[in-house]
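User: Fold both of these, please.

Assistant: Here is the first one.
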Amino acid sequence: MKRRSLLLTLLLAGAFGLCVGPFYWLAMAATQENSDVFSWPPKLLPGGHLMENLQGLQDSIGLTRVLFNTVLVAGVQTAGAVVVSVLAGYAFAKFEFRGRNLFFVLLLSTLVLPDTVMLIPIFEMMMKLGLIDSYQSVVLPGLVTPFGIFLMRQALRSMPDELLDAARVDGAGELRVLWRIVIPVNRPVIAALALFVFLGGWNQFVWPLIALRSPDMYTLPVATATLQGLATTNYAQVLLAAAIAAVPVMALFLVLQRQFISGLLAGATKE
């Protein structure tokens, strides 16, 4: 029994090392000089070049402006996608209207389409609207997420209709029912959805690379890609940018991990 416990502990420790080790090396390498990043044996203690690398990022890509762009795009996209998903999921789950099932099947069918298939139609749409190289061109395509609508619809279908009918009998309108009953009850699912959408908006690369033209509009993933030169690349700055990009997502997940897990379980209910 002790041997089995020891073996299980060693396996868990190895799995933990495989998960955390790369992030630890990333954080340490971001504080090193460029010539020491790939030295052997690797340097696993903090170096003294963090501020130098930060200043280099500021000079190379305008780090503060890039972070502002990324936070703005991911934040607005998350808020908009959550609102659209909640409203659409509520309509699909609790309202009877002609073609509801057909519309929902068509919505689900878009989940099997690769994102690259939609790049040209979306680009032509943004071009005709005159939105290329603007925040709107990056935010608008992410406001409607079929997965988010599906997740909210599945979660809302488990709510008893009697609870909503009682609120309506008391004189509450649909928006009040949504705000006072539906949203508080489904807060874990909404938190999980917000985390998913924020992660996608924060890390999106291909579409911002196509839609944004001027460096002042770049988000962090696009700006990080510009650090890779043809002849030389400052990998310390690249790794520092990657570490900065990972910190908000990890912090948000740690804050919302309980709601995230509860939301996934709540959204997995079967009809």
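And the second sequence with its predicted structure:
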Amino acid sequence: MPVIVASDLDRTLIYSAAALALTMPDARAPRLLCVEVHESRPLSYMTETAARLLAELGDEAVFVPTTTRTRKQYQRINLPGPAPTYAICANGGHLLVDGVSDPDWHAQVTARLADQCAPLAEVQEHLLRAADPVWVRKHRVADDLFAYLVVERELLHEDWVKELAVWAENRGWTVSLQGRKIYAVPKPLTKSAAMREVARRTGAGLTLAAGDSLLDTDLLLAADQGWRPGHGELADTGFTAPSIRVLPDRGVLAGERILRELLGAVRGA
């Protein structure tokens, strides 16, 4: 039976220049491969070793990129290895099959959202009204499923995020602060549900997962085994569980370590 590897992308497998965490002397820094270009500029990287490991992983398992990015944002990424048959975008709102969103899955998701939580328009209106223009740089809606703010982190009051989380909780939504983005996401919109659907379609006998943020929690707990790096929201909160391996590595080298461990688990299955 096939093995599924469902992994978050940003700050798990791929890294912006600001997130690389190259703390070693320059002469010992790893060689990097650019895997995303946006508006003619390089945006995301992985080490060349990580790129090789990912290509090997794609040959030996069902690799499923699993991201909160919109479909358009995901499609900017050019990952090494075979093109994934399945990809999970918009935090589970879209299940791509050979690059195309599965309409039946998307319809199921939108029906759950309509039934179980407050509408997006209400949340978006609250964000527009409550966020301070002093630290907000952008208001965004992702694939008509959830909303997020791009902020100046050093000007942001952490208490505001906590207050937003309480407000959202009462309406069936969750809040996550990742780098310069504050996400407001409906609780039924999960990566784990989409991963389970891929497992059902492929008849997978084992599911492996990796991620660094609060929005990856359900994915890691739903998998048979999970990995998280030494950075990110989950590390900041000390999150762990019996099935999750906590790695000390931080930055782009954590992505390399995660891929090495995932590949080892696939080969040992």
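The chain has a mean pLDDT of 96.
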